[in-house]
Amino acid sequence: MKLRIILLAFVPFIFSIGDNSFKTTELSYNFSFSSEKKLLPGEELNYVVSYSFINLGEVKIRVKDKKSINGMNYYNAVAYIDSYDGIPFVNLHQIYESKVNQDYYSDFFRGIVKGDEYTTYTEYYFDYSDSKIRIKKGKFSPRELWVDSTASVEKQFHDGLSIFFFARMNSGKNNSMLLPCFVNEQKVYTRINFYESTIPVSIDAIDYDVECVRLDGDMDFISIFGLTGYFEGWFSNDESSIPIVANMKVIIGNITLELKSWKREGWTPPKYKN
Length: 274
Description:
Helix content is about 5%, strand content about 55%. By secondary structure, the chain is mostly beta strands.
């Protein structure tokens, strides 16, 4: 059962309390986002997830499309989590979707978990103009609605997937950000520490060292994916800001996510220069 607990942890970048040597910025929902980084509709990133020397499964993250509504840009993104066949005690298939606004906060979140008996869903509808989140939970086939409630919001929030894109768009800075998240129907804060110095990173999928910038964090609560404690990741030092590799601490140990393949028009991993 340990492997199942580990595999539940292996997607987004949710992390919290960290180093105090940086300037801390708490962001409210009317924050005007500015970044030279760019998301590209059609982008697809594939990661292999390992625990010690065991490959557990893969994560695929796609930017499905970009839409402009009333002068505001929105990105629809999805993450697929699938365990490999033949791993004892593990048969995991999950889908997470987010509608991310141009400040890279969440306007909508859906989590789908395929179980042995039925498939469950959790949905968050963020209505910042009315200061509310609508929460829906239930199952498919036959469809049953278990929860339909609302909660108040006083600022914009992240979900487990939107914070992944927010981190990408801020990589390469030298500061620390305290960010509000809505996780397991609870309001929590996470802190992300960004660093501007470049470092070489080597992975199996690329035959040279990639020029990367680093970020890290630490959290004192358990996220919906089982992630807790210290986290660190390395992002390509270019406008694409592709996550190359990440180390995460989960309940019983550490896992690694490593970029396996990608589809992004015109992108070549930047080569590290001494």
